[in-house]
Design brief:
Elements (H helix, E strand, L loop, with lengths): L2 H20 L7 H21 L4 E7 L3 E8 L19 H8 L2 E6 L4 E8 L11
Antiparallel strand pairs: 1-2, 2-4, 3-4
Helix pairs in contact: 1-2, 2-3
Length: 130
Amino acid sequence: MTSGEIAHARAFVRGFLDVARSQHGLTVSARAVEIAQLVVSELATNVCRYAPGPCLLDLEADGELLDIVMWDSGPVLPSASPADPTRIGRHGLELVLMLCTSFAVHREPVGKRIHVQIPLRDDTLVQSAW
């Protein structure tokens, strides 16, 4: 995955949520769109850095939550570094964990699948997966 593909993934998320709002009547806050784009960007960046080969992005919205699933061919499971305000970089997974209500990683026969959830409405209390 290249930086252009990361930008494409962000645009895909925005388009998906626009359709969920306009054609399916779901309430999707502007904040949820921004958070979803940031989360997908961070997950995709990790794919670029740590996973050779292809990846897949799957989105589902049920009215309350946006499910984001990203599969990649890399065998190494992600792990967050201990909090360190002096560390430069490597904060992506920390951000994902803070912004999502759930976070799960599943080994697959090839690679891994990361599943996160984000509330679609601002009035939904966010309990961080962290």
